[in-house]
Structure formats: C-alpha cells, structure tokens
Specification:
The complex is a heterodimer of chains A (about 140) and B (about 180).
Chain A (H helix, E strand, L loop, with lengths): L19 H13 L16 H15 L4 H12 L14 H24 L8 H15 L1
Chain B lengths: L4 H18 L18 E4 L6 E3 L8 E6 L4 H16 L3 E7 L3 H11 L5 E5 L3 H5 L7 E5 L5 E6 L4 H16 L3
Parallel strand pairs in B: 3-4, 4-5
Antiparallel strand pairs in B: 1-2, 1-5, 3-6, 6-7
The chains are: A mainly alpha (about 140), B alpha/beta (about 180).
C-alpha cells in the first residue's frame, strides 16, 4: 500500500489565485474532500502524494471554470461518495444520517417506559393525611 | 427474560464490532464497477514513441494492473501476476503509476514481465480517472470494456483461483 509521508507540503503558496475569494473557495473545497490514502485527513491537511495530485486536479478544474458541485461530482464519479466528508443522503448512507436519531428516540422511549412503570407512591386515606399534616405542623412549631 | 436483555445487547454489539474488526477500511468500493472504463492514451513503457489506449483493453476480457517500482506490495504480487499471465486467460495491461521509466523497465527485466503492454502514467492524471489511490490495484473489464471487478492490494494465487479466474471464465461465456 502506498503510504508516503514526506516533508509537509508547501501549503497553498504553490497555487496562484486571482483574489482572496478564489483562494477561500479552493480551501473550502479541499477541506470537504477526503484524502483516500490517509482517510482521516482532508485534502487540505494531507501530505500524501495522491492528495497533492487531487489538489492539483481540483485546482485545475476550478480554474477551468467548473462550479463546486461539478468538481465534487468529478471526484465522486471516480472515487465514490467516500471522498466526501459529508456523505449525501441515499439508501446506503441512511443509517449514518438517521442512526443517531433512532438510537436517541429508542433510548428516550425506554426511559419513558421505565419511569412510567415505577409504582406510584401509595395514596393515603383522609385520616392519614390529617395526621401527617398535624405532625408536620408540630414539627414546624 | 428481562435480566437477559443486557446480555443480549452485549452479544449484538460484540457481533457488530467483530464484523467491524474484519473489515478493511481501505477497501473503498469503486464507483466504476458496471461502468465503461475511463478512456486514456499514454506512451508505452517499452517505446515512448508509440501509445497505449483504452482500445488496447477492448474486444476481449482484459486486466489493468496499476503498479510502480516504489510500491512494495507490487513486488509481493508480482509472481502471482506472472502466473496469472501464463494462464493466457486474459490480456494484462500494466499502468505504471508515477514512476521512473528506467526503473520500471529494469523491474520488468529483473522480475519478469506479465504485461502484454505497459502504459506510463508519469503524472498520475489517468490514475485519477480510474479512481486509483493505492497501488497495486487491479481492474477486470469484459469484452465491451465495462469494468466488472476491482481489487485493491496485492493479488495472491489464492485470490486468482478463487475469484479472478472464475470471473474471467464467466465473462468470456457472456454470462
């Protein structure tokens, strides 16, 4: 497997941008994209050679006038949804999106049931209640 | 009944985590499966003057193997690849990825050449079209040039006899 770690990549200095907005756009794009070699790093963070190639590809696509959606689609067509840090909602990813909510609701339901099942405090008869009030009064007095 | 619930939850978790341990997070499914192979045209390793293209992979069941001399796993799979080539079941085309031409030629001289032809992808541009992210990678295409299979990591004799040769036979019989 290819795991090439070399001196930290030169950063964005290697790329030329016409203005700060374009640079920000490029940064936002490569933060969204996963380096498939390191997997837990975005294209912005990664030093891997493949990340370098994919950054250059992203840059060239941007410079050729493609919009963000087209650029991301270009990479998804080749590397699959995994290349995106925010996976799209579809049948395969539904569990990722709704799993936590389902677990939360299940837990909530369980707590609700447990609480409801607990026996209510035994109710007191009228005499008992008066006696209790008297005792409390004495205590306060 | 109720007292067994925690044990049940534990058992389910244990099974799920156990399956998770067995999965390789590097094995990312390829979106190319079932799609026409990406077009390319690159210079030949043995002759920079002439080119190799996706046309060289059409018309028969073919294999594209991505390799480089810098890739240790490629050396691991090389003998299995040579044996696969010797069966003559499929045309194997090499994609020499981000490598040095002289080193690559030396490699094939030293270790033997399983490839009908090798394309040189020096800047890795074609590899991106194929969704390559870690050599070695192996693609199998049917006669129409549809990608049918991808393996990431070294080929082994076991994998070749269990998956690859049966798949090639199926593709040849048009199933």
């Amino acid at each position: 497997m290819l795991i090439v770690v070399h001196a930290s990549w030169g950063g964005l200095e290697a790329y030329e941008f016409k203005d700060a907005a374009e640079e920000a756009r490029f940064k936002a794009l490569i933060v969204e994209l996963r380096c498939l070699v390191c997997q837990n790093q975005s294209l912005l963070d990664s030093d891997a050679e493949l990340a370098d190639d994919l950054r250059r590809e992203t840059y060239n696509l941007m410079k050729s006038g493609r919009d963000d959606a087209q650029i991301i689609q270009f990479l998804v067509d080749r590397y699959g949804d995994f290349v995106r840090y925010r996976p799209p909602l579809n049948a395969a990813t539904a569990l990722i999106w709704f799993g936590p909510l389902a677990v939360f609701l299940l837990g909530g339901f369980w707590v609700y049931r447990t609480v409801r099942r607990q026996q209510p405090a035994p109710s007191m008869s009228e005499d008992q209640e008066k006696r209790a009030a008297r005792l409390l009064d004495e205590d306060a007095g | 009944m109720k007292r067994w619930l925690p044990l049940g939850i534990f058992a389910v978790l244990a099974v799920l985590l156990g399956i998770g341990l067995g999965l390789d997070p590097r094995k990312v499914p390829s979106p190319l499966i079932g799609k026409p192979m990406p077009a390319f045209e690159l210079s030949r390793l043995d002759n920079p003057e002439s080119t190799v293209s996706d046309a060289d992979l059409r018309g028969t069941v073919s294999i594209l193997n991505v390799w480089g001399t810098w890739c240790a796993e490629c050396r691991v799979e090389h003998d299995a690849l040579l044996r696969l080539a010797r069966t003559g079941e499929a045309r194997i085309v090499g994609l020499n990825w981000k490598d040095d031409r002289d080193k690559a030629r030396q490699w094939l001289r030293d270790l033997g050449n399983p490839y009908a032809v090798t394309a040189v992808d020096a800047d890795g541009r074609v590899a991106i079209d194929w969704g390559v992210y870690g050599a070695p990678e192996t693609f199998i295409m049917d006669a129409e040039g549809i990608v049918r299979y991808k393996h990431i990591g070294a080929l082994t004799d076991e994998l070749v006899s269990r998956e690859i040769l049966p798949l090639i036979k199926r593709l040849k019989s048009g199933a």
